[in-house]
Amino acid sequence: MAKTLRGSFRSSLKTTLKNALARKPSLKLPEPMLEKMTAGRAEKLPLAKMEKLAAVKGMNDILPPDSARWEWLEEKVRSLMLRYAYRNIRTPILEHTQLFVRGIGEVTDIVEKEMYSFEDRSDKYGDYDHLTMRPENTASVVRAVTEHNLLYEGGKRLYYMGPMFRRERPQRGRYRQFHQIGAEALGFAGPEVDAELILLAAALWKELGLSDWRLEINSLGEPEERAQHRAQLIAHFEQHADALDEEARRRLHSNPLRILDTKNPAMKAVVESAPRLIDFLGPQSLAHFEGLKAILDANGIAWTLNHRLVRGLDYYNLTVFEFVTDRLGAQGTICAGGRYDYLIEQMGGKAAPAVGWALGVERVLELIKEQGEAIALPVPDAYAVIPEASALPVVLQTLQALRAAGVSVQMHASANAEGMGSMKSQFKRPMAAAHASH
Ligand code: ATP
Ligand code: MG
Questions:
Q1: pLDDT tens digit string along 131-150?
Q2: Is residue 58 part of a domain?
Q3: pTM as predicted
Q4: Whose CA is nearest to atom 26 of ligand 1?
């Protein structure tokens, strides 16, 4: 069967080629060459019985029973966001490439090498869009807020959940499709909102039973302060040029701050001796930072100052922070964020301050597993055993009523058309399922 299908495809491929060649008399291919051109193709054709396909590398299926852990986490987040008065926003997965290039910054890992971008099919005028699958959601939120003029009546507190896409090397805690939950507060300038967001994250860790984390904070100051620091930073790195790796040298003049964020241990010394951004901050920036720290202290949230914390995206100013754990190996950042007071204006909106964070769902769930936190998986309240097939209409009617009343019932169903099987054999199923879920 497979052979004849392949054979017939091959002969039709040959006919197509022959016809195409007939329309181009200048190109004459001898029969043996035609044979050669079509031979290799036939081997690659789908067989009548398809080979098994696998998911795209770095993109995972989330299957039951594990998916129940995802639902459990999402439910906790929804309930918490409600209590903090953050409202849900859902933006498209595809956006114009330019949104991320402008928003995240051209000289960042994400834009330089991690985006899934493509050209859409052209319309009848030959025009086409450059599109990108979102690598993060802040730029999209800012786009939506601006497009729909959401800040018209004042600030907005928003949250989102969903898949993001980055073409990174897949490894533990780093995937090509991964999921973020994020919170953004737009239109508020004071450190109390930075604090609120950090307290919200801390409350979430508590609800999830996570204790093995620490909070690192830093302040990136304002653009003028950063410009002064930048000049000295470049001078420092130029003095120690031989200690820089290739990537650092490339970024020396385009994005020197990012060098501080290096994961290369060989550069530890040169990075630690670099001028500190905090020493360049003026009184206003410092007061903002102090305001945040005072609120964190009053709420018993321990923090450490990390001078090298600069974040991988260009849009941040003032507060930046990360929640980090040592229990997940190299991919230890479970949540990260900061202020981006200039992004909205930069994206064409009316200038407004903003601050937000995003957490990596896979990493948070992994940390819950690492800590041995047990999550109760859902088990039906009842299992419906069916005496005989003729009872099915009544059975389903009864089940509808039970479920409408809030009872969770799994109905016995047979795998083949022969019948229901004996009541005894039907009983075995729920017993096995109950054992498996404990
Ligand atoms: P990292 O330094 O680990 O690459 P990042 O700075 O690129 O992180 P952000 O863009 O700030 O990460 O995203 C926020 C959070 O999303 C991260 O702290 C992490 O938990 C998660 N995250 C980012 N990239 C991935 C990925 N490829 N796979 C899984 N989770 C990710
Ligand atoms: Mg990254």
A1: 999 999 999 999 999 999 99
A2: no
A3: 0.86
A4: 174
